[in-house]
Task: structure prediction
Amino acid sequence: MLTPPRAGYTLPVFACAAAIAALQKLQDPNPVLSVFLNLVEPDERVEIAIEQAVCLQPGVSLAITRSDPGDNLDLTRNTPIWALVEWGTAEQTDAIALQGGEGVGRLADGQAAFYAYAKRLLLENLLPLLPPGKKLRVTVILPEGRQLAKRTSNEAFGVVEGLSLLGTSGISQPLSAPGQLELYRADLKQKQTQFNELIFCIGENGLDLAQQLGVEPNRLVKTANWLGPMLVEAALQGVQSILLFGYHGKLLKLAGGIFHTHHYVADGRMEILTAHCAKVGVPTADLPIIFAVPTAEDGLKYLRNLDANSGTTWTEQVYGELAEAIDHRSQIYIHAHSDRALTVGSVLFDRHRNIIVASKTGAGLLKRLIESG
Result:
């Protein structure tokens, strides 16, 4: 029998546990070895170990946990998460003020990269523990966050100077563990019994944006980097249509025939982007520059600047070709591995989660899926 890979918890859970421990330490000098908290999503009570908790001075305490993402190739494994907790002032507007300290990323507007789930998790767990009449200031610190962020795609999504407290759930699914593919297949089979048109999202950004656009959450299937096997499974299960909805730096790999999108397996992003630039006629002098930029986001930026300066429409043309190639190569891949037919459309978004392009099939699919709610 296949043993499912072990799930862990997302960074917001450990930040919340540290904050609970620090709040307890403010009120009780006894050692804090672990705390209980409600994950909220899912509604489940869990126990999290506390590495250290100390009262630094009257009214100020610090607690430390360490990240455990489960059986995943996650660079945040075992990273320390600190929560500095202080009693708030009378002038403080909210009962609990959340702040990002060192190592917590910043968004374009300067705000700490606390996403909706992280805020909800902290507030719903801390508010019931707050003594009457008291206010609290919580500063989350990721001492290794700034260094770790250099090895992530955070900057591609506008998060700088550290890691984001990202996620829509407290459970950290082991996306990159091979055994996870079987669990994704099981999720696909279950959702196929409800709908014959589904959306494949590689990760949290796609899942979140699709829901913001009004797509029924039960139509969303997380694939991580297993796009090829999941497309084949969808065909075998009799799904009629799949919308590939994702960050362009990942999905454009499919236009080059790369159907496992983890960079450990294959990359080729700039080669694929440059080839499609050449195909639509981008000036030869620009091709080596596009090829040499470090990321797909930089390539997109270069094309947009080229259009702005010369009045051209290269971005639209290049990404239109890429989207159609993704659809075409996906259907070839599915047929080769299953001898089945499956309609595939694609929608690509940028680091700001703005849609760049939808293939002709993808635009129609997205419209139908939004209208069906």
Summary: The radius of gyration is 23 Å. The chain has two domains: 8-171, 175-371. DSSP finds twelve helices and 14 strands in the chain. The chain has a mean pLDDT of 90.
